[in-house]
Amino acid sequence: QDTDEFILPTGANKTRGRFELAFFTIGGCCMTGAAFGALNGLRLGLKETQNMAWSKPRNVQILNMVTRQGALWANTLGSLALLYSAFGVIIEKARGAEDDLNTIAAGTLTGVLYKSTGTV
């Protein structure tokens, strides 16, 4: 069967463009950061409260560490994904081409901008 599975408007691509994939990338990075941060927060919370007996204050302290680390990592990875996606879309629109050079340039610009605010 050589017919298309989906009906597409005339002139539309069969694949998603960089702009459509940006939403998936940003959301996926936020969720990954939240999961990684929560696990890291659990590890840190258990380590910092190892001398305490199992009680409500210990549980609260562990939960605080889990939520704090989860939010920190989600914000960090989400921000990086937003920068990467924005640079990728801008470069693609400016060049008028979809190729690997856009990806390399977007990643490089994201890294440069992210590290430009920190100390060396």
UniProtKB/TrEMBL annotation:
| Major location category of this protein | membrane
Keyword annotations: Membrane, Transmembrane, Transmembrane helix
Q: Where in the cell is it found?
A: Membrane
Which molecular-function annotation in GO is an example for this chain?
protein transmembrane transporter activity
How does this protein lie in the membrane? Answer: Multi-pass membrane protein
Do you know which PANTHER family this protein is assigned to?
MITOCHONDRIAL IMPORT INNER MEMBRANE TRANSLOCASE SUBUNIT TIM23, TIM23
Q: Which InterPro entries does this one have? A: Tim23-like
Protein's UniProt keywords contain Zinc-finger: no
GO cellular-component term (any): TIM23 mitochondrial import inner membrane translocase complex
Span-the-membrane segments of this chain are 21-42, 72-91
Q: Can you supply a Gene Ontology BP term from the record?
A: protein import into mitochondrial matrix
Question: What is the name of the protein in this document?
Answer: TIM23 translocase
> Is this entry keyworded Cell cycle?
no
